[in-house]
Amino acid sequence: MSATKTIYDGHIVKLELEEGKWEIVRHADAVAILLLSEGGEMKLVRQRRRAVDADTLEAPAGLIDEGETPEAAARRELQEEVGLDADLTLLTRFYTSPGFCDEQLYVFEAKNPRESRLPLDEDEEIEEVWMAPQTLLDGLRGGTVQSSSPTVAAALYALQRLAGQQ
Amino acid sequence: MSATKTIYDGHIVKLELEEGKWEIVRHADAVAILLLSEGGEMKLVRQRRRAVDADTLEAPAGLIDEGETPEAAARRELQEEVGLDADLTLLTRFYTSPGFCDEQLYVFEAKNPRESRLPLDEDEEIEEVWMAPQTLLDGLRGGTVQSSSPTVAAALYALQRLAGQQ
Question: Which residue ranges does UniProt annotate as crossing the membrane (chains A, B) (predicted)?
Fold first, then answer.
């Protein structure tokens, strides 16, 4: 029997302590979307991220709402953040940080985009950017770009796909 | 001026509330290491992860200790988890979940491995596995494998490198 104590139960984060020593963060699962232009550039969004005190460049992404499927969440986020609907295929899924957090991420590829805009959440402000995946990865290694793990996974998938087309 | 309240300050996690509404998890930065065999298989470690209630397959990885460089942490973790030292090159770095957490991950590639073992932390128990990167990615998509974001980034880098060698 494991004794679990809830330390905090908030808006997006729940913090638990298991057996008096294991700190576990509960967080909703999330989605991110890889969308490439015909020239092989990746659709990114630049936004202020308070947690890391930086403007990050990330793939369109967001949390899965209660009762929503990962694919429906990806479709909604793509419409909210870049005003597009598309055909979606799951590329991969993984835990962002399984050492202490249960958040799981689903990375989708988007094809055949068409205009379809939904309003952004009121506390979000984003700028759309097109960037070559290799430029993003070079900027990350050099420290000039701040980004997230699903964005890196999407960029690497894009390079794989582009390499296969040559 | 932003008012920040500390809700919890624990062993590996610190939880803050900014301006009464932004939940931010503070967590040490971490490293993960991509190590390939001559046949192109990836060195993975299987371990129990309480936060996700699963046995995960992950690249050798761990937290950066206070005052330690990312490269020194990667060298130490490789010696602790798989008993090898190696030449290390930074592949990429990124935030695991910048929407709410400041953890940054550094992914290194390891070459020219040689035996050099350091003892594991006493609360760690791991099993070493070799696996083809594509098998790992297929298992993730199908749901039969649980893994982490740095592991996925490393697997995709491995595929890029292997594709370049053909």
Answer: none
